[in-house]
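Shapes recur. One chain:

:::
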Amino acid sequence: GWFRRLLHKSKPSSGESSLSTSRSASSSPSSSSVESSSSSPSTSLASSVCPSPVSVDISASGSARWTKSYDVCICHSEVDLELVEELVAYLEGQPESFRCFLQLRDATPGSAVVTELCDAVQNSHCWVMLITPGFLQDPWCKYQMHQALAEAPMANGRTIPVVKDVDRKDYPRELRNLYYIYMALKEKSFKQIRDTVFRYLQELCRSSTSGM
């Protein structure tokens, strides 16, 4: 009797068989289908969906740039004043008209040196440290460097070391976790400083806009 029932058992239709086959194929794609999907237009479309950084006008009124009095403070020794004046003239002559704090020019007469150095750091977005032999011997330069590092311990692009005529072994240990600009060609170094300040200000303005 069991053999007879086995012979009369209904077989699945061709439609059901093909459906179950297609389900099986869709749940376990072959390696060839994976390879083709990796190069499919949908992948390139997904990558193109990631937004590129939006250009921000740092000179727009109301931007985060104007929350501080200066865009950049130049920390330097007196023996490097001539070079620093050239750098300041270059930055202030850019289309963005970067606002620079130059101690000899902008410090308040009669004010305490400590007060002026601290105010310059706190009221500037970025700080250029011109690391030269004169800088290493000037205690006020080191003081201002420490104030800048205390203001922004993680730097975030605000502290910009610029090295000139200093051996690696003499480079301040406090700055060794930061990339620096080596001043070999003056014009190239000036442009690197300008680009770094501009990049920080643009990111600052972009972040403040997105957070509103």
About this structure: The domain at 69-211 is CATH 3.40.50.10140 (Rossmann fold). The mean pLDDT is 80. Strands lie at 70-75, 100-101, 124-131, 159-163, 181-182.
